[in-house]
Design brief:
396 residues; eight-stranded parallel β-sheet; binds flavin mononucleotide
């Protein structure tokens, strides 16, 4: 197996096989099948919402590279008159800076960027949704739009007209049900005065999925992308529990650096996310409030998707072993070309190559190692990615 993996890693530096999950299944008897927002996808690696899903060209490249799914850049909701309660998130900023960021003794990567959501007219977002719909229908790439809807203060009502208008137009662009949507709770929101109040945040999480469902003319599945709030780990778990009405939870968006006024990632982000996801799996952890841990019963609670500092197959396994059915990558698709061992191909292609096939730190190597340690068993001769989740549950 090891020799085969080294050979594959080397020869795929030039080009990945078109259907690499099939190759992995045939060669290693490993089934990479994963899930995002209730959809079965051929492997767990998708692209998180952001500056890398702004136009149809990027989607086309991602489909060609073989990504499992892509979440479009977050658009800011508006009503029929074009009014947007969250207009402060629609600011224009193009410049991104890739920086090294130290965390827990290791150097990681972070993208420093002062922007926020989609900064063009809402009507310009709809052709992108249609391009995503076409790729999804063709079975080439699952594409999901992302929205920032109005989030009121405790005493205020939700602006339903914004929910209705925005969702109806997205549903119209999408066409066939179900409509899949991600609702973003961003790091800049975490850094905003709106997010100073815990009760206010919990109300949003309890009510937003139902608001979106009520506003949609089509059956809709809602993923809630949770922020890293500026409170403790126990509150992160409380947020997860408050979101029980969502179909999926994306855990968790970037940290907010109050001093610099920017979001950041790297090892601090994965440390926190994994710690919180791990806590979820450990009932009775003393610092959590009684009753705040919801068991991860498959099917009964929202599916989890990990995000944050995914820079190796091993890191994907860390998220999977804490209950995640898939992952969303952003920063790792933005590294200098010299950082990827592959010599040819687009960044998503080069990233997939190393994340899956690296002989020591890739997904295949990691799953084989878990098998060797007795932590993952073959089912009908196959190691299954989605089994890791069941394992995490039993371990908890
Ligand atoms: C420049 C940049 C812009 C982003 N914009 C969005 C956004 O509009 N909506 C959203 O939900 N997440 C956004 N994200 C978060 C990413 O989707 C991802 O969840 C996060 O960066 C953690 O993954 P990473 O460590 O691989 O970057 C953005 C991230 C970056 C770096």
């Amino acid at each position: 197996m090891r020799a085969k993996l080294e050979r594959d890693f080397d020869r795929f530096k030039r080009e990945l096989p078109r259907d690499f999950p099939a190759h992995v299944r045939e060669t290693y008897a490993i089934d990479l099948t994963a899930r995002y927002l209730g959809e079965v996808v051929p492997h767990p690696i998708g692209k998180g919402s952001g500056q890398l899903s702004l136009n149809p060209g990027q989607l086309e490249d991602d489909a060609a590279a073989g990504l499992a799914f892509v979440v479009l850049k977050t658009v800011i909701a508006e009503d029929e008159a074009g009014a947007r309660a969250m207009a402060a998130w629609a600011i224009h900023e193009t410049k991104m800076k890739l920086e090294r960021r130290a965390g827990t003794g290791r150097e990681g990567w972070t993208v420093t960027w002062k922007g926020r959501g989609w900064d063009r007219p809402f009507s310009d977002y709809l052709p992108l949704v249609r391009a995503g719909r076409d790729l999804t229908r063709a079975g080439r790439l699952l594409v999901v739009p992302s929205v920032k809807y109005h989030l009121p203060r405790v005493a205020e009502p939700f602006r339903e007209s914004e929910y209705r208008h925005t969702t109806a137009r997205l549903a119209d662009a999408w066409g066939e049900p179900p409509l899949l949507l991600e609702k973003d709770f961003s790091p800049t929101l975490a850094g905003d005065a709106l997010a100073d109040d815990r009760e206010q945040i919990l109300r949003w999480l309890r009510e937003v999925p139902a608001r979106i469902r009520a506003a949609s003319p089509l059956p809709v599945r809602v993923a809630v992308k949770l922020m890293n709030a500026r409170f403790d780990d126990a509150f992160q778990v409380e947020m997860m529990n408050a979101s029980a009405e969502a179909n999926a939870l994306v855990c968790f968006n970037r940290l907010f650096d109050v001093e610099r006024g920017v979001a950041y990632g790297g090892w601090d982000l994965s440390d926190r996310n994994l710690r919180v996801l791990g806590t979820q799996l450990t009932p009775g952890t003393p610092h959590l409030r009684a009753g705040s841990v919801r068991p991860l019963t498959p099917g009964a609670s929202p599916g989890l998707t990990g995000t944050g500092n995914i820079c190796s197959g091993r890191m994907i396994l860390e998220y999977a072993r804490r209950g995640c059915e898939s992952v969303q990558v952003h920063t790792f698709f933005q590294l200098p070309l010299s950082e990827y061992p592959a010599t040819h191909g687009s960044r998503p292609q080069r990233a997939l190559h190393v994340l899956v096939f690296h002989p020591r730190d890739g997904l295949i190597a990691g799953m084989l190692e878990l098998e060797a340690r007795g932590q993952l068993e073959r089912q009908q001769g196959e190691l299954r990615f989605l089994e890791l989740r069941g394992h995490a549950h039993r371990a908890g």
